[in-house]
Specification:
The protein is α+β, with helices and mostly antiparallel strands. The protein has three helices and four strands; from the N terminus they run E-E-E-E-H-H-H.
């Protein structure tokens, strides 16, 4: 049938939508190839966050530290979305 599975070594999976992000920590990700199509099966610790709060957090980090938007986003990612830790890491 031509079915192949491959485990992907992932640290975190983020699904972004217009109004929220779905964040999967400690994921188990399996890529499945079947009949010319690739699909992914993902399981793990799931949390959701509103996109508005993410944008506000980024603005707050920029205001408090004077960093760039990219640096603020990376600091949030590196600190699992913890605003205080992100600010401290850039200070």
């Amino acid at each position: 049938m031509g079915i192949a599975q491959e485990e992907i070594d992932a640290k975190r999976v983020i699904i972004e939508s217009e109004d929220k992000n779905i964040i999967i920590e400690n994921p188990s990700v399996i890529k499945i190839k079947m009949q010319g199509q690739e699909t992914f099966q993902i399981s793990g610790d799931i949390k959701e966050e509103e996109n508005n709060s993410l944008e506000e957090d980024i603005k707050t980090i920029i205001e408090k530290t004077g960093c760039s938007e990219q640096e603020a986003k990376k600091a949030l990612e590196d600190n699992n979305g913890d605003l205080a830790e992100a600010i401290l890491s850039l200070s």
